[in-house]
Amino acid sequence: AAGVIQSPRHLIKEKRETATLKCYPIPRHDTVYWYQQGPGQDPQFLISFYEKMQSDKGSIPDRFSAQQFSDYHSELNMSSLELGDSALYFCASSDGHHEQFFGPGTRLTVL
Amino acid sequence: AQTVTQSQPEMSVQEAETVTLSCTYDTSENNYYLFWYKQPPSRQMILVIRQEAYKQQNATENRFSVNFQKAAKSFSLKISDSQLGDTAMYFCAFMTTSGSARQLTFGSGTQLTVLP
Predict the structure, then answer these.
(1) Considering only alpha carbons, which residue of chain A is nearest residue B92?
(2) Distance from the B109 Cα atom to the nearest Cα atom in chain A, whole angstroms
(3) Strands (E), A58-111
(4) Residue A36 sits in a domain of what CATH number?
(5) Cys staple from A35: which of A43, A79, B13, B111, with CB 3.0 to 4.6 Å?
(6) CATH code at position B80
(7) What is the C-alpha separation between A21 and A76, in angstroms, rounded?
(8) Quick one: pLDDT at residue B1?
(9) Does B57 contact A at CB distance below 8 Å?
């Protein structure tokens, strides 16, 4: 069965640079969630989209933005990167029911 | 806002034995979902089991079962016949069913080690 795809899997950036993370949900899933998991932490909700519209917002910094495109894939754009942004970023998708399927994550390292 | 508490940062169990991981939560809502996710060293988040709050019957999935006590706001996970592959971080998570928000709120996790 198809799963959630995230790219890239690993990303290394310098401070103050910009990063773009991509998420391709499971086919026919219309909802995408982004989570950030810092080292030794639990995942924290950042933002979600339903049918290409932002549906909810969590603890997402103003330096971050995201959108969901017509093909339902989503991108998380991160600017002015800080050392504290180093984390594992998960995307999860859902078909409107109460189960979220997680992608493998993108490990972002900010040097 | 909902909070999820896992008071056991680390636990260990001998292979083939049974272990119970604890989780409590706080919410003013009546309808919600609770989940246990497993995160092995690969860091993939894997759904283990889910429980609908309106169901009195405890969910079971093969060797995994929950003890859901709604009045006490408790949601523990029991793993029977533990296997080496069960070694992972286990997260308890809450999801509201009210409004449009469906994000998961996670506990801090319990690192389970299955010993040979």
Answers:
(1) A42
(2) 7
(3) 64-68, 74-78, 87-94, 101-102, 106-110
(4) 2.60.40.10
(5) A43
(6) 2.60.40.10
(7) 5
(8) 76
(9) no
- Total domains present in chain A: 1
pLDDT in tens, chain A (111 residues): 789 999 999 999 999 999 999 999 999 999 999 999 999 999 999 999 999 999 889 989 999 999 999 999 999 999 999 999 999 999 999 987 778 999 999 999 999
Search chain A and give the residue with CA nearest B43: A104
Joined tokens for residue A1: 């069965």
How many domains does chain B divide into?
1
Q: For residue B52, which residues of chain A lie inside 8 Å, CB to CB?
A: 98
Q: Which pLDDT score is estimated for A98?
A: 78
pLDDT of residue B100: 66
Q: Is B13 near chain A, with CB under 8 Å?
A: no
What contacts A70, CB < 8 A, 6 or more positions away? A52
Is the per-residue pLDDT at B94 higher than 90?
yes
Residues with Cβ within 8 Å of residue A111, at least 6 apart in sequence: A12, A13, A14, A15, A83
Q: Which residues of A touch B102 (CB under 8 A)?
A: 31, 33, 48, 55-56, 94, 98, 100
